[in-house]
Amino acid sequence: MTIETIKKEFPIFSRRINGKPLVYLDNASTSQKPSAVLDALTNFYTTSNANIHRGIHTLSEEATERYEATRKSVARFINAAVAEEIVFTKNCTESINLVARTWGHASIRRGDHILVSALEHHANLIPWQELARKKHAKLFVIPLTSSFELDMEAYDKLLSRKTKIVCVTTQSNVIGTRPPMKEMIKKAHAVGARVMVDGAQSVGHQRTDVVSMGCDFFAFSAHKMLGPTGVGVLYADYDILETLQPFLYGGDMVTSVEREHAVYRDAPWRFEAGTPNIADVVAFRAAIEFLEEIGMDTIESHDARCVAAAREALAGFARVRVFAPESGASCVAFTVDGIHPHDVATIFNSEGVAIRSGLHCAEPLVKDLGVPALSRMSFYLYNTMEDVAVARQALEKVFRIFSLTSNP
Ligand SMILES: Cc1ncc(COP(=O)(O)O)c(C=O)c1O
Q: What pLDDT score does 46 carry?
């Protein structure tokens, strides 16, 4: 499929913004949805809508089958050993909180060390801050090098037998850094620590293999990978998952209930109390199939071409500073000297170009970078070289409006 053919699968691209064709470069926030996903959602509600796991009528059985089929697709997509290692949550944030509240509550003791990387989104930072506070544990940060990579020497020094968990993203949502996951996980395991991997930014952009990566926990959201909002995934090694206590209590997570106590179901259903987001989970399968059809390696190299083109476009401007490490993937963060990123984003929007500006839910990282805020272009499988060219023109407009010269 050509990029143009792929783009046609996404109805939103027939929209115009401020009279201009939509150029969507805010994919790290959320992705657009292909017709296959929208159709799957409508199809579920129009043909199989019923609650799951509790009815013996046809619709309930169909709904259960379709919901559980997505679990199998997710397991295949990330190469989990069995579908039972996949827990559905409402988003990546909830998946990480689940680990902090269940595994963390049971395992962290006074004086233990929790390591987080300097790259973390608030979702993989604040749950660990809270856990450290409640348990009187210590939170340490793996810093960045001057080239925006994680400082592996500092990591080696921070790791010790006191380290109980290392929390790290596969890909920064701000600057695109991809830490060396396998190496980090191997070293963490060597001191007996668990590893919580935040896969939100990479899982829809590169091939994921949780087994070869070796992580203990891997969290992500469907909405960043063409799927609907309201669906998150937690992968956990089953040997760990089956030892964890539930996170929420109520219907559908029990095998028997007395007035005084209840017996809980096995994992993963033990963690899915109440009626889950059935329709969106069902539609998520269509997103996975769409990605599989195109191929994750194809998507990864397409992203890399977009990033290279964007960096080249930005390099032509004086006053533009790019924050991009060697390993940087899928996005390009930048500042324009003397102009607030919100002004940059507003002018881009006037040209139909959606970019993100601000702190990107990673306030400590942005502070480490020494800037008050950043603009970010983030790419996905439907972005074209024409999109990059339009973004470049929008940047020229920024310079015109602020009467700045764009040439070095
Ligand atoms: C790296 C990273 N982790 C976690 C999240 C949180 O995802 P969600 O808001 O879907 O829970 C995001 C969202 O931008 C992210 O980029």
A: 98
Q: Does residue 268 have a cis bond before it (omega within 30 degrees)? A: yes
Q: Are 319 and 337 in contact (CB under 8 A)?
A: yes
Q: Could you tell me the two tokens for 101? A: 């509240």
390 lines ligand 1 (CB under 6 A): no
> Which mutation among 97, 124, 125, 173 tests ligand 1's pocket best, with the greatest number of atoms within 8 A of CB?
173
Tokens standing for residue 36: 């296959």
What's the rounded Cα separation, in Å, for the pair 204 and 220? 9
Query: Domains, the chain, ranges and CATH?
Result: 3-25+295-401 (3.90.1150.10), 38-293 (3.40.640.10)
The response to whether residue 201 sits with its C-beta less than 6 Å from ligand 1 reads yes
Cα–ligand 1 centroid distance for 284 (angstroms): 17
Q: What span, in angstroms and rounded, lies between the C-alpha atoms of 406 and 230?
A: 42
Instruction: Confirm or reject: Cβ of 200 under 6 Å from ligand 1.
Output: yes
Token pair listed for 328: 């940087």
Residues annotated as part of the active site: 361
Inter-axis angle of helices 341-350 and 385-401, to 10 degrees?
120
- 407 C-alpha to center of ligand 1: Å? 36
Atom of ligand 1 nearest to the CA of 95: 11
pLDDT means per 10 residues, the chain with 408 residues, are 94 98 98 98 98 91 97 98 98 98 98 98 98 98 96 98 98 97 98 98 98 98 98 98 96 94 96 97 98 98 97 94 91 96 98 97 96 97 98 97 78
Position 75, amino acid: A
Ligand 1 pocket residue status of 198, Cβ below 6 Å: yes
Q: What is the pLDDT of residue 403?
A: 85
pLDDT score at 408: 57
The pLDDT, as a whole number, for residue 145 is 96
